[in-house]
Amino acid sequence: MMPQINLSFTTSALVISLLLLIAVAISVYFYRHTVPPIPRGKKVFLIILRSLALSLLLVFLFEPLLRLISTSTQKPVLAVLIDNSKSMNISDKTGERSAQLKTALKSDILKNVNGELRFYTFGTRAKNLETVVADSLKCDEDATDISAPLRTVAEEKDRYNIGATLLLTDGSYNLGQNPIYEGEQLGIPLYAVGIGDSTEQKDLLVTKVLTNELVYNQSEVPVDVTIKSSGFKGEKVEVILSEGSKELSRQQLVLQEGTREYSARLSYVPEGEGVKKYSVRVSTLPGELTTANNLKTFLARVLKSKLRVLMIAGSPSPDVSVIEQTLSEDKNLEVRSLTQKNPSSFFEGQLTSQLIDSSDCIALIAFPSSSTSDATVDLLKNSITKKTIPVFFVNGKSIDERKLSAFGSLLPFTSSNSSPNEQLAFIEPTQKNHPILATNTEEGAESWKRLPPIYKTQTAYKAKSEATVLASTKINNIVLNEPLVAIRDVNKQKSLAILGYGIWRWRLMAQGNLQTEKLLSTFLSNSIRWLTMRDDSRPVKVTPSKPAFTQGEPVEFVGQVYDASANPVENAQVKLIAQQEGTEFETTLRPIGNGRYEGTLEGLGEGDYTYRAVANTDGQPLGEDKGRFSIGELALEFQDTRMNVQLLRQLAERTGGEFFLPAQLSKLSNKLKGQQTFVSREVKSSRELELWNWKYMLALVVLLLAVEWFVRKRSGML
To answer: Are the CB atoms for 289 and 641 separated by under 8 Å?
Structure first.
């Protein structure tokens, strides 16, 4: 089809026509009489040359734009999404899944689709392929993200006229968000072909291991294991916890008929310090679908044995009793309490520099009070500063703000307008993902909002610029710009402050509610652990987001880079190299502001890895960091081995498509014929040419004038 031609100017056609007439008139007037006289034909030729040249020059003043519009027909496209993950290699009652997948791709059904095909494979990520050779599919990716190809199709459907989607998968996804959401955003029908058996497979696997990531040397650590079995009855299996080749704990289970989950409580006593790797294994049985899911590993960071907490209280109070009792219930803490009796002595004994120096954390409860001697304040402050001992502070009505100011350089807040008047205040979490506020409840950080209010004086408190506010003060359902819980970590000195008091209410008045009854004990334990966790002063700090990953998960790293003056470096080049048995994997961390960096490594196999991160700026080295992480033997692809028929049916129904089994794929052609989205469309494309800025048009004007000059010269008119 011939393109449509459109010529436009920055002024009206009437003005252009008038200018062209003027150009012709000028040319005729110029050549009405010539010296010497020339033949009429040559005179007309010169008038035409001059008219064209003047017309073009005048027209260029109004920026002529030539637009060529062409129309073509674009056939409908069927997007074929192919599951290339490891679960497609499973053989179940329906046969080998990969063989069924390849048979579907080779079928004449796809070849005879009234349109074009566009292929995408997916696993850990979506990839577009120009063509797919079925026999070349390896089905070897470590995880399945179904939402990724759906998102890609949604982005490309308008460009390629994608009118329908064919999804070939077992429906078992373990990365990304629920694909139902992405399916609803498609706007075109999705036809799902479910490959595999939807019934529970005969299998035995470790599904969950719950334990502490931070543990203490020579302190027993519980490990709760969940085992799932299907298709067995009466068999006895062993659940074994081990460190390397050393067995630490064992429990026997008797399997019952049907699909069931079993709980096993194991334990171990860590030895030494540092990061240790442990594994939980359930013995294998004949006839299992796969044994790749019978093992799960985890890492634990072993700290030194019991932490010593020294509590110093300004006076006896319910807060002192409840905090001491709650901390004492943590078997990893050794609590010593001193309650002030008179300005220079305490009920439980004498406060000495040796006692302070031997403590891992100092807890100040409504201390110092007006009766505290200046000598006691100086002794405590000097020892804390010298040893950089972390401080846990709880406010109190009897606090002496003047004497408290002696600890001002250690605490995360400042105060003004001191007032003893008190009011009730609720806690409003602001850093819900901070480990100190972790709750171990179903509601997460929302559980904090269920706590009863505590007391607070009307003294105005403000967080220091380098502090982090974990929770704000809420009074009468109004969240104030005032901290209730704040932390600070500067120059190896850590502190945490609760600027209210009466936190005994968070324990005694929170009983009987699963969401709140253990909040105080969890909060105090988390606080002491954060305070006593020592950070070094290395200029480069790079750590994985967690110590252990599952196969298929991207390994995420976060880093910080500082210069010699401890200022954050914004644009350093941070290169990270992970190594396993001589094989290296490399990535570069990208800056995210304020000296922070992040990056990922993908496609790593199971095993233990070491890594080294090196930072440079302008060719000058800033420092490096080292560490390790682990990728567990349990692949995500073998956690749920059934074909997820429910998900695939929902995807098809919500998009206006249909669910098929591989044997029903022949229905696809008829279904596509009736789809309004799967039709050809006319596509208009346009090309614009700025004639006033086109070099060839300028050359034409020069050529016209040159030819006119040549003819005039030959005619003796020059």
So the answer is: yes
SS3 state at 356: helix
- In three-state secondary structure terms, 301 is strand
Length of the chain: 718
User: Angle at Cα 541 formed by Cα 540 and Cα 542, nearest 5°?
Assistant: 120
Q: Give the distance, in angstroms, between the CA of residue 326 and the centroid of all CA atoms in the same chain.
A: 35
CA–CA gap between residue 109 and residue 274 (Å, rounded): 59
Q: Give the separation between CA 415 and CA 482, rounded to whole angstroms.
A: 11
CB atoms within 10 A of CB 702: 11
CA torsion sign for 276, 282, 284, 287 is negative
User: Which helix (H) or strand (E) element contains residue 524?
Assistant: helix 519-532
Q: Which stretches does DSSP call E strand in 595-679?
A: 596-601, 607-617, 620-635, 658-660
Q: Are 286 and 339 in contact (CB under 8 A)?
A: no
User: Apex CA 17: angle with CA 13 and CA 19, to 5°?
Assistant: 115
Question: How many CA atoms does the CB half-sphere of 437 hold within 13 Å?
Answer: 25
Listed residue (29, 126, 46) closest to 80, CA to CA: 126
Listed in sequence order, the residues at least 6 apart from 188 whose beta carbon sits closer than 8 Å to its beta carbon are 153, 157, 162, 163, 164, 165, 655, 656, 677
Query: What is the mean pLDDT of each successive set of 10 residues along the chain, which is 718 residues long?
Result: 72 82 85 83 85 82 78 87 90 88 89 88 88 82 89 92 93 87 91 89 86 80 90 91 92 90 92 86 88 84 82 94 93 90 89 92 94 93 93 93 92 91 93 83 83 93 92 92 92 92 93 87 91 75 82 84 75 93 92 86 86 90 88 69 90 93 89 86 77 78 85 80
The radius of gyration computed from the CA coordinates of the chain, to the nearest angstrom, equals 38
Residue showing tokens 């040159």 = 706
Per DSSP (E only), the strands in 433-571 are 454-457, 460-463, 468-475, 478-490, 493-498, 540-544, 548-551, 555-561
